[in-house]
Specification:
435 residues; alpha/beta; Urease, subunit C, domain 1; TIM Barrel; seven-stranded mixed β-sheet; four-stranded parallel β-sheet; 23% strand; binds zinc ion
């Protein structure tokens, strides 16, 4: 690990979602660029030839010919599921009951949580993810371990303890009161400390009673600066069960709405099978639909449709995420690839510039942090990654015929993985490097 002050390489970052390759005002691409880092922030970025005199002569980490982009942001991932990935199950509820609810019980042991917290952050960084919004287990200690480890590394990280008071094994349940108290204690202890934050995290309507949903809503209202995260409309059996548990509801989205859980700080994982009313309500409230393509394919949940959402209302907010461990890869590159395929199956085009925007500034916007992370601009937190588009022999072979930035990005998202991430820099410090 080293704290270098100057990085040289090709730079790419976005100002907004690009319409396509010709929309050059949406992004900055600098062929020979430099980033100067001071105090964990980007002190200057631009053309190498324009480097201010104050930074000349300093030690340089020369990443050429690689591409430097802002660190990836994963908007939906489960901390206690690193060892659930690749569990053989037919669908969501079988997967939860057979593997996940068994595995998450281990996180009642603080030592296990602590050991896994380090492994979890290592895994994120090796895949180029510098910020994540994570679910803990039901145990407060799981979130203490994760946020403590993130704080030590000065990583920007959001996490919450899941609230569950029914339809789960007894060791994994809390009560409306204890769930509220533990989450409240976490907020007091961690929220806004360094770069870590706490999210209000009712797992999903299926595992919370009405009393718990009410407490979750109260907590979210009391802490309007906290994100709220939960799952919504992932699987048909889940949707039927939830309708039976909340018979008064118009639909699944209406349940969260009823408890005051919709809004611009709210992240809803999946949102696959929503009707037009639900999508309109999501948009009206500023809520974010989180697309988790590898998970949706793996669990056979269904195909997220961006066009469907945008046909109801063009300004509905969305994000993209791995959903480890229903998801099958920690890599946002693999996630973008599977996302591309899910949309392509439905005849929807998704340009690689839009993909890379989404995994960086787009996701930063979805979690209300686009003023701090997601760009390589002066004043931003110095979280960035170095991508090698010839990282594997097959990529190098394909790269021989690549001549544009868009082609290179598409190659990386289609064929890339953790081998593509040559280095990860967090708060200006190189925390992961393949060389
Ligand atoms: Zn999930």
């Amino acid at each position: 690990m080293s704290a270098a002050q100057l990085h040289r390489g090709r730079l790419l970052w976005f100002e907004r979602e690009p319409e396509g390759a010709d929309d050059t005002e949406a992004f900055h691409y600098i062929e020979d660029g430099a980033i100067a880092v001071a105090g964990g922030r980007i002190a200057w970025s631009g053309d190498w030839s324009d480097l201010p005199a104050a930074y000349r002569g300093r030690d340089v980490v020369d990443h050429r010919p690689h591409l430097i982009v802002p660190g990836f942001i994963d908007c939906h991932i489960h901390f206690p599921q690193g060892q659930v990935v690749a569990s053989y199950a037919g669908s969501l509820l079988e997967w939860l009951n057979t593997y996940t609810f068994v595995e998450e019980q281990k996180y009642g042991d603080p030592e296990h949580s602590e050991r896994m917290a380090g492994r979890f952050l290592d895994m994120l960084l090796a895949h180029g993810t510098t910020t994540a919004v994570a679910y803990g287990s039901v145990h407060k200690g799981s979130v203490d371990a994760l946020l403590g480890a993130a704080l030590k590394r000065d990583m920007r990280m959001v996490a919450g303890k899941v609230m569950m008071d029914r339809n789960a094994p007894e060791p994994l349940t809390d009560t409306p009161q204890s769930g509220y108290d533990d989450a409240k204690a976490l907020i007091g202890q961690w929220h806004g400390k360094g770069r870590v934050e706490v999210a209000v995290t009712p797992r999903f309507a299926l595992t919370s009673t009405e009393a718990q949903m009410e407490m979750a809503g109260a907590l979210a209202q009391e802490h309007p600066d906290c994100l709220m995260q939960t799952h919504l409309s992932e699987n048909h059996r889940e949707i039927e069960t939830v309708a039976q548990l909340f018979p008064w509801s118009k639909d699944y989205t209406d349940i969260y709405d009823h408890y005051g859980l919709l809004g611009p700080k709210s992240l809803f994982g999946h949102c696959i099978h929503q009707n037009e009313r639900e999508i309109a309500r999501m948009s009206e409230s500023g809520s974010v639909a989180v697309f988790c393509p590898t998970s949706n394919l793996f669990l056979g949940s269904g195909l997220f449709s961006l066009d469907k959402m945008r046909s109801v209302t063009p300004n509905v907010r969305h994000a993209i995420a791995t959903d480890i461990g229903g998801g099958t890869s920690w890599s946002m590159l693999r996630t973008l690839d599977e996302g591309y395929k899910v949309l392509n199956l439905q005849g929807q085009r998704y340009h690689p510039l839009r993909s890379f925007f989404q995994a960086t500034l787009g996701n930063a916007g979805a979690i209300g942090m686009s003023d701090r992370i997601g760009k390589l601009a002066t004043g931003y937190e110095a979280d960035f990654i170095v991508l090698d588009s010839k990282a594997s022999p097959a990529m190098a072979l394909r790269a021989e015929t690549v001549s544009t930035l868009s082609e290179e990005l598409f190659l990386m998202q289609t064929m890339g993985d953790d081998r593509t991430v040559a280095a990860s820099i967090v708060s200006g410090v190189t925390v992961h490097s393949l060389s």
